């Protein structure tokens, strides 16, 4: 409950943050302004849940109109959370995290929402170790990693040109080694993200769904109990109305496509 109170308070502060820059289309700004107005009314209305749902939809229309940034998806997630839709709240917090992994507001709200999930799936220890070692892949956005790689390569080329005119450059080789290593880390990481297909991750948005060992109702249940809203997974395969999901503990099962959202 402490996490719930914190998140609710944070939401009322964060939702008024402007999510739109000067380059945002006028139609997107219009939808955003309407969404903010509806959100304000919802905070003191008896039918607040319906208004939060309406505000979320207006923010989604702003995204469809071209306004895509982490603050926008944070606001959508906040509206979904207050409307009681935990699955879509986590979905949009994850979208916000992709665009700005370093946002404290996104991380706090995402963490608080995850703590309210019914399914407790512990990640595989090997995945945790790998995530800590290659932290930059998750902690920095694709844009940041891409430009970091370009900057490091530029510095590398400048140093090489200086070396040609100044052979007695002190500490040249250690510096070159570090730059090559960092440029490779950021460059490879950015390349992996660019080559990653769309909708490679997902979140269960249905209240509950039965995971099965194959892509059909005739297959046995993969788990003893249903999976619930907010559970996250990686997408391995999509086949008709079913998809093959890889969960954080590396268990694999098939779930209905209509019971989840991909991003």
TrEMBL record:
Signal peptide positions (record): 1-21
Claim: Signal is one of the keywords in the record: yes
UniProtKB keywords: Membrane, Signal, TPR repeat, Transmembrane, Transmembrane helix
Membrane-spanning intervals of the chain: 146-165, 171-192
Source organism superkingdom: Bacteria
TPR repeat residue intervals: 70-103
SMART domains (UniProt xref): TPR
Name by which UniProt lists this protein: Uncharacterized protein
Organism ancestry: Bacteria, Pseudomonadati, Planctomycetota, Phycisphaerae, Sedimentisphaerales
